[in-house]
Amino acid sequence: xxxxxxxxxxxRSGGGVxxxxxxxxxxxxxxxRAAEVRTAYAGLLQIRRVSGTGGTPAPWERRQPVRxxxxxxxxxxxxPSAVDGDGARTATGYRVLAADRDGAVRVExxxxxxxxxxxxxxxxxxECGRILGELGxxxxxxxxxxxxxxxxTEALPGPGPG
Length: 162
Prior knowledge:
Radius of gyration: 15 Å
Largest sheet: 4 strands, antiparallel
Number of strands: 8
Strand content: 15-25%
Helix content: 25-40%
Distance between the termini: 15 Å
């Protein structure tokens, strides 16, 4: 089975490669994007079913946690942040990046300067944590430098392939 959901699987239209929005790329949207996300997420759930991990992340998700968490959030309808060609934030939403520990992911709430992301972050990140928790990820909310909130997320132990 091809386990490259959200991380290199060619899309069905032949137009390129699907990549889950991690919040550091250009804004993507529209019906075409929504369909790609639904297809990728259905593939992720199928990988879980086939690998026998039940409600916990499958081996693919554990190997590529940034992509898996980004796909889960995007599929749940949480908006990703976005940047323009110069790296300036253009949209408020989640930003997923690797944490300091192997297998751990950091989720931040980011947006354009002065756009109010800091006011929304605790509530928005709690919702992200709830979504991820339902999918077998442990998500702990912390307050970091400059008193900004972030989630640290990692896959809960599961039954493994079987």
